[in-house]
Amino acid sequence: MARKEFTYRGRTVQELQEMSMDEFAHLLPSSERRKVSRGFTHDEKSLLKKLAKRDKVKTKSRAMIVLPSMVGKTIMVHNGKEYVAVTIQAEMIGRRLGAYALTRKPTKHSSAGVMATKKEKK
């Protein structure tokens, strides 16, 4: 069975890449649409320029919206301690980069502590 082609609000990735930024902004949810319509920060603009030249870029701009032009590129997103490699896929369009570089590790509990009671050690 063939894999279904990804569409964002009824548009394919190729159609999204051909759109202007204003047309694309009308497809986004409200908070992302406001961010795109107000314009990008200096760091976000430099990120877009670097992505036009290279396929692998480091950034601390966790609030950057994933745009259709970023699909297929690898972005190293800072999580506060280190850079996490995020390969942009079509399903990520319209989300923020920070959602893919987690800042907290999940807790992994081991056995009970040294002074634990017998009930807790079981």
In short:
This protein is of the alpha+beta class and 122 residues long. The protein is built from five helices and five strands. A three-stranded mixed β-sheet has the order 3-4-5, covered by helices on one side. A two-stranded antiparallel sheet has the order 1-2.
Write the layout of secondary structure elements.
Blueprint: E1 7-8, E2 11-12, H1 13-18, H2 21-25, H3 30-38, H4 42-53, E3 56-59, E4 74-78, E5 83-87, H5 118-121
Parallel strand pairs: 3-4
Antiparallel strand pairs: 1-2, 4-5
Structure write-up:
The chain has 5 helices and 5 strands, in the order ββααααβββα. By secondary structure, the chain is α+β, with helices and mostly antiparallel strands. The chain has one domain (7-102): Ribosomal protein S19/S15 (30s Ribosomal Protein S19, Chain A). Strand 1 and strand 2 form a beta hairpin.
Keywords:
122 residues, alpha+beta, three-stranded mixed β-sheet, two-stranded antiparallel sheet, 5 strands, elongated
Strand order of the largest sheet: 3-4-5
In CATH terms, what is the architecture? 2-Layer Sandwich
Q: Number of DSSP strands?
A: 5
The H-level CATH homologous superfamily, spelled out, is Ribosomal protein S19/S15
Can you tell me the number of structural domains?
1
What characterizes the major β-sheet? 3 strands, mixed
Number of helices, where a helix is a run of at least 4 consecutive DSSP H or I residues: 5
Helix-residue proportion: 25-40%
Residue-averaged pLDDT? 90
Q: What overall form do the CA principal axes indicate?
A: elongated
What letter string, H or E per element, gives the SSE order?
EEHHHHEEEH
Poorly predicted ranges: none
CATH class: Alpha Beta
Oligomer: single chain
Distance between the termini: 49 Å
Strand content bin: 5-15%
Radius of gyration: 20 Å
